[in-house]
Amino acid sequence: MCRWLAYSGSPLLLEEMLYKPDHSLIDQSRHARLGVDTTNGDGFGVGWYGAGDVPGLLRSVSPAWSDRNLRELATHVSSPLFMAHVRSSTGTPVQQTNCHPFRYERWLWMHNGSIARFATLRRDLMLAVGPEFFPAIEGSTDSELMFVLALTLGLRDDPPGAVARMVGIVEAAALRHGVADPVQMTVATSDGSTVWAFRYSTRHQSRSLFYSTETRCLRMLHPEIPMLRLVSDESRLIVSEPLVDLPGAWNEMPESAYSVIADGRDEIRPFRPEPPS
Questions:
Q1: Glutamine amidotransferase type-2 domain location, by residue (predicted)?
Q2: How would you label 219-233 residue by residue, b for 16+ Cβ within 10 Å and e otherwise?
Q3: Could you tell me the CA-to-CA distances from 221 to 39, 124, 213 in Å, in that order?
């Protein structure tokens, strides 16, 4: 499937998370440890928030480990909130419009997982997309369709509720078509100030997802690491798999849960799909 990370906190050069850690996202694009696939070479993307009204976005079908433009960008762009993704296709074409993150206005969205028998369910799900958001669909992935469905269902006002309703619609469509265990997802989405991350699967056997320990605690545990002195107490990471093998640095996201990361407010709450009425 895929690997991704979401960072929020003190402004950092992208390379600090994409390239420098021992098991960085770029390393994971070739040597993933916890994913279904070891290699995630079907494209990549990075989205970051800066001075503009909408987040910057770079997406490519190149493998992340060999893309010179990504390497150049990562050494020059600094951001307080960015998301990055390396893709392993689950069947849809390798093309730029199918690379994550996906963007709509100030919102970014990325996903690891799949909708089972997506070709069977796709028409029903497409018909549930609101007219306002239908023109935003550029690619052919289940991940992008999940995003526009969540937008249709109120993502901009109530992200947890919108994602719960989106999953409810997918599972209801699967029930109508006799598709078992339709949803497998770890999702991150952001409006530029808050990050929401979800871990859920219909079978309750979800793909891996981890969040970093509070920076203040990490400084006490590992005073020998210079970078921990450069970032604020509010700095956080959510990752498909740990970037470094550092005792006490990572915590597994609970099954069927979502996290909220914002200035002064980090929470983990239970996640339950909301069936359509």
A1: 2-242
A2: eeebeeeeebeebee
A3: 32, 51, 10
Give the integer Cα–Cα distance in Å for 185 and 205.
10
Q: CA torsion sign, 58 to 155 to 207 to 123?
A: negative
Burial of 216: CB neighbours in 10 Å, binned 0-12, 13-18, 19+: exposed
The reply to whether 2 belongs to the active site is yes
State how far the Cα of 160 lies from the Cα of 231, in Å rounded to an integer: 28
Strand order in the sheet with 183-190: 102-104, 107-115, 183-190, 195-201, 257-262, 265-270
Query: What are the domain boundaries of the chain?
Result: 3-270
The reported pTM is 0.96
First to last CA, the chain: 32
CB 88 within 8 A of CB 39: yes
- pLDDT, average across residues 86-105: 96
List, in sequence order, every residue forming a beta bridge with 112; answer none if it has no partner. Answer: 186
Of the candidates 1, 2, 17, 187, the residue annotated as catalytic is 2
What is the domain class of 3-270 according to CATH?
alpha beta
Tokens standing for residue 49: 């928030």
* Number of other CB atoms surrounding residue 14 within 10 Å: 23
DSSP, res 236: E
Residue recorded with tokens 């990504």: 70
Residue at 110: amino acid letter: M
pLDDT tens-digit series, residues 114-148 = 999 999 999 999 999 999 999 999 999 999 999 99
Residues 169, 166: Cα–Cα separation, whole Å: 5
Q: Which residue has the tokens 């958001």?
A: 133
